[in-house]
Amino acid sequence: MLLSFTRDDVDIISRETGFKGFYRLDVLNLRHRLFNGGWGPVLRRELFVRHDAVCVLPYDPWLDQVVLIEQVRVGALEKSDNPWMLELVAGLIDTDETPEEVAHREADEEAGLTLRSLHPIIRYYPSPGGSDEFVHLYCALVDSRGVGGIHGLAEEGEDIRVSLWPRVEAVAALETGRIDNAASIIALQWLQLHAERLRAEAGPQP
């Protein structure tokens, strides 16, 4: 019979903050129950603590195209020839806003977009081995006519280029590796499965 573990089967012996800036790094000493029974040894683990995130793939069902943003990402500096990544609209839940409220706010700030409707895709942990980040992933229907240009908040140092991609070209960019971040990959694959339904449900363009 398989054991069903819960958080009560993890014993956190100590937890200290090793660094605190915009993000936080905690150092934990813990042990957990084993599949074969009993408790394992005490483990030292470093945990990257950050706010949960909201990511949105804006999709125009009438023109069958998506809105993507492009900005430099420090995490890609050493492992990519082009650290300007093609991504979804995204932001952190760092106030008492709901994920849906963050989605609408970030769409306006990062792409000048008004979201007509939000379709939940999935919620997931992108890197649970060392981070507690939790992502709320959506597809949103938009009217993409006139969308584009440079956006972002100057006070946050944002320099975001907005571009329109026919859905087939965005998927091709995924397959060639030009789009190589998890949220965008998951959302575009979901869209491939659901685009025809979304287009049918959208009806004539208002």
Radius of gyration, CA atoms, in whole angstroms: 20 Å
Oligomer: single chain
Helix content: 10-25%
First-last Cα distance: 56 Å
* Order of helical and strand elements: EEEEEEEHEEEEHH
Structural class per helix/strand content? Answer: alpha+beta
Low-pLDDT ranges? none
> So what's the overall shape?
globular
Binding site for Mg(2+): 90, 106, 110, 158
GO biological process, one term: nucleoside phosphate metabolic process
Family: Belongs to the Nudix hydrolase family. NudF subfamily.
Function: Acts on ADP-mannose and ADP-glucose as well as ADP-ribose. Prevents glycogen biosynthesis. The reaction catalyzed by this enzyme is a limiting step of the gluconeogenic process.
Describe this structure in words.
With 206 residues, the protein is α+β, with helices and mostly antiparallel strands. The chain folds into 2 domains: 7-49, no CATH class; 53-202, Nucleoside Triphosphate Pyrophosphohydrolase (Alpha-Beta Complex), CATH 3.90.79. Helices cover 21% and strands 37% of the residues. Strands 4, 5, 6, 7, 8, 9, 10 and 11 form an 8-stranded mixed sheet that branches. Strands 1-2-3 form a 3-stranded antiparallel sheet, with no helix packed on it. Helix 2 (167-176) packs antiparallel against helix 3. The longest helix has 21 residues, at 182-202. The chain starts with 9 loop residues before the first strand and ends with a helix. The mean pLDDT is 95.
